[in-house]
Amino acid sequence: MIDILIGTLCTIGAVAILIAAIGILRMPDFYLRLSVTVKAATLGGGLLLLSAAFYFPEEVSVTTKAVAIIFFLTLTAPVAAHLIGRTAYFIGTEKWKGTIRDDLAGMYDKETHQLGSGDNEGDNISHPSS
Amino acid sequence: MVKQFLMNLLLAFTWVALTGVLSYSNFLFGFAVGFLLLWLMNRNESDHRYFTRVPKIIGFFLYFLYEMIRANIQVAYDVITPKFFMKPGIVKYPMNAKSDFEINLLSTVISLTPGTLILDVSEDRKVLYIHVMYLRDKDQFIQQIKDGFERRLLEIIR
Hints:
heterodimer; A: mainly alpha; 2% strand; B: mainly alpha; elongated
């Protein structure tokens, strides 16, 4: 019973990482690549670690380490993705031609790196008409 | 709230010490037993927040797991089939979360769901800019996040 569980978790995790790897190659632009990779890698790594924790049920050190790694993985991966995505947008990485909407365009102040919300027009962040 | 949580933790460790088996499943079982015990003892007291919050946290976790698997399958299908079905776009999302902690948790949860990626938080903390892979309708997407993740998350934190 526990073997089936471990096998299933391992397989799903490995397939998730495989799909992320294919996604890096196939996706048309940078943001989609980032979007596909980060989550699938977190899910895949998490599932593999979880199956390792189930494989050694009576060893607390293994389980504790696995849970700690999963915790920090889920905590840090989105931060890294957010920073990479923000930098990419800021330096003007091109979007795919199928992108249908861009609310972020013209919201950055290139001098101060400040980002406006577009709600209050009274602030000193410039709004180009494009 | 914190007092009850610490008490529950103490009961769980007592259970582990008494049974003599230090493993995760045994600890979780002890935690559940301790929770039940505290719930039985605290029924007449006024502060019920801890006892409504723990089931909500578990519910949120399951909901997040469900959303994650659903979106992962959608993205995986798009990756391995030759044709692209996606309609990417960057959406401005006005959020209800106010403090740093709430914004951090909300953006972590949104970022971890496949297909959505936080690009930036505005300087006055009113708006999130989200890159969405499958954007059919902007208002529908905002409503979906508001009713799903944000409402559940704020119910737990506040």
